[in-house]
Amino acid sequence: MATIQCATTTLILLLLLLLIIPRSNSQQEYVNNKQLDCNNEYNSTKGNLCNSLPSCTSYLTFKSSPPEYTTPAAISFLLNSTPALIAAANNITDVQTLPADTLVTVPVNCSCSGPYYQHNASYTIKVQGETYFSIANNTYQALTTCQALELQNTVGMRDLLKGQNLHVPLRCACPTQKQREAGFKYLLTYLVSQGESVSAIGDIFGVDEQSILDANELSTSSVIFYFTPISVPLKTEPPVTIPRAAIPPEDSPSPPLPPAPAGDGDSDSSKKWVIVGIVVGVVVLLILGAALFYLSKAFSGSTTTKATIPTTQSWSLSSEGVRYAIESLSVYKFEELQKATGFFGEENKIKGSVYRASFKGDYAAVKILKGDVSGEINLLRRINHFNIIRLSGFCVYKGDTYLVYEFAENDSLEDWLHSGSKKYENSTSLSWVQRVHIAHDVADALNYLHNYTSPPHVHKNLKSGNVLLDGNFRAKVSNLGLARAVEDHGDDGGFQLTRHVVGTHGYMAPEYIENGLITPKMDVFAFGVVLLELLSGREAVVGGDQNGSGEKMLSATVNHVLEGENVREKLRGFMDPNLRDEYPLELAYSMAELAKLCVARDLNARPQISEAFMILSKIQSSTLDWDPSDELERSRSVGQISDSSR
Ligand SMILES: *[C@@H]1O[C@H](CO)[C@@H](O)[C@H](O)[C@H]1NC(C)=O
Ligand SMILES: *[C@@H]1O[C@H](CO)[C@@H](O)[C@H](O)[C@H]1NC(C)=O
Ligand SMILES: *[C@@H]1O[C@H](CO)[C@@H](O)[C@H](O)[C@H]1NC(C)=O
Ligand SMILES: *[C@@H]1O[C@H](CO)[C@@H](O)[C@H](O)[C@H]1NC(C)=O
Ligand SMILES: *[C@@H]1O[C@H](CO)[C@@H](O)[C@H](O)[C@H]1NC(C)=O
Questions:
Q1: pLDDT tens string 559-580
Q2: What is the pLDDT of residues 403-454, one digit of tens each?
């Protein structure tokens, strides 16, 4: 009797289930941990099934994962989304660094490719030894599967090499006819966290449990697994901050990893209260969030959205917090940049991949960079120094980043000093006073980078080509793409070493070329070379054939000039003829002495940039006293130097 009753109940339940879950209401059968079985193909691992909608907006979720994927900019590179969209969807800024494991929603375009929905991304293998599984499970956090990767790439599982570029199909979906009729607009690919149940996930997004079960062909008694994606149908855009798992990890009784039971039938009453509390919280948040979202949308009518760094960021801030918080970067649309640069026309090309842009009459420089440049963005937006080029905004488009900088009207120092090759051949040369100002400005910028940023930074690529000049010939140090944070662990040389030596020939310090040693003293060396360029007008490297034999380093010439007999004559001969003797030889001598110390082979013999900055401050104030028209004064200075140099 009991068995018959049981059987009928089961039958009724099954019938009910069949009625409730018509196949056309589902995206795909739940992956059910099959993504771990890379050697076998399953329909569910290939992707969600296409229905009548060919494409739609969809959402992925991703957990901020240090060291690399912690900013919307970096995450969007990985997932082929747009930093500004991620920022807007999560109420953060494009370059905000998120704490580890913060769940962000990532809006993407989802479309049909064969029978499956997917969003295409691409990935370049970084380290030898990465596998389809590690890429799918660890790098992409199960947003794709090893099976789908293998299916859509020609490279065999065992032939993966560093540097190879892979096509990455990310799992997404569009609502079915049935779901659309029920009011669902989007599908979100959700990464299940430890201890989460379907109902808890439903609570987070304000969706009833049954709709989620339907979308994944699950029943209330199904088991869902940690770190296996699940499709969540949504009637509205997802909330800007996703409240994390119903049970905080600390108090969590740490249920076994897979499987974690679906449903909360086993929860005790205190847990229920937690969930009730969260439901209320979520509802309030959802209402508030939606209201704020639409309000902010309504008010951001202008095409350029100002992404103001929210004050909640203080967790990642040091003493710079206050300034950080008030600074803002503009996020440009690609179309705006196209318009401002005349479609990146040749006439607006400044040099290389740098273009002049005009925003309503205000000039800016737009530089196109490949790959992830969030490091430079993150550094520059924290910097507020007159002598370091200011980043005003950026745009990410088709994998390229467009950085928008303040405009330096007079191009680079290189353009002015090394005439013959450049367009300033016919203009007047830089005067002594201007050169001293420029040297002082550059020292000021480096001093700031070395001693006033936290952590300290090394520019690593200082050269006259990276010293830009504004309308008043004040210097702006630019191109911080190679800049690195350095921590000095005491005097016993706790500095970083690199095997990847990059820089500009003629400016690289010997210890960096030979041992890859990165210290602030490498900037001091390059600064010395720039000083020598300012004095002599010569280039950092001259002569030499294609193999570099026969070339002369400017840094190697100064000792010869300043040592031995006839220093006065030799220095005069060394000075830039464009200065036409209109400089105080005594001060030129002091500057050459400083340059000589800066380019010393032994890095310990080089001054700190702060010392160089002080010496230049003195040279600058003496220069201000110096009257170029006073011939008598000038000859007296010359007289003094011949005395003092003996
Ligand atoms: C998998 O998909 C193929 C083609 O779409 C279909 O013929 C087959 O029945 C599916 N298998 C399962 C187990 O659903
Ligand atoms: C989807 O594509 C449309 C048009 O191509 C674009 O405007 C939109 O920003 C895209 N959405 C996402 C999330 O990338
Ligand atoms: C995504 O990639 C697949 C396979 O390479 C391709 O067939 C499809 O057209 C791509 N989809 C989009 C929207 O680019
Ligand atoms: C898959 O990735 C998650 C998150 O990084 C990790 O916890 C888990 O151990 C990985 N699984 C395997 C089998 O490596
Ligand atoms: C977005 O962040 C700001 C600053 O942290 C906060 O004041 C605001 O309430 C947030 N908006 C939403 C919708 O959460």
A1: 999 998 899 999 999 999 989 8
A2: 999 999 998 999 899 865 445 555 678 999 999 999 999 999 999 999 988 8
Among candidates 27, 294, 273, which has minimal Cα distance to 171? 27
Structure tokens at 564: 């031995």
pLDDT per residue over 384-408, tens digit each? 899 999 988 888 888 788 999 999 9
Residue 85 CA: which ligand 2 atom is closest?
A: 13
Looking at the structure, tell me whether residues 432 and 398 fall in a common domain: no
Domain limit, last residue, from 209, 234, 259: 234
Nearest ligand by distance to the CA of 41: 1
Instruction: With a cut of 50, say whether residue 33 has pLDDT above it.
Output: yes
Taking the CA atoms of 138, 141, 147 and 149 in sequence, report the sign of the dihedral they define: negative
**What separation in Å is there between the alpha carbon of 299 and the centre of ligand 3?**
36
**607 and 600 Cβ atoms separated by less than 8 Å:** no
Name the domain count of the chain: 3
Domain carrying residue 572: 412-420+428-626
Enter the tokens of residue 388.
């370091």
Burial class (CB in 10 A: 0-12, 13-18, 19+), 612: buried
Number of Cβ within a 10 Å radius of residue 163: 8
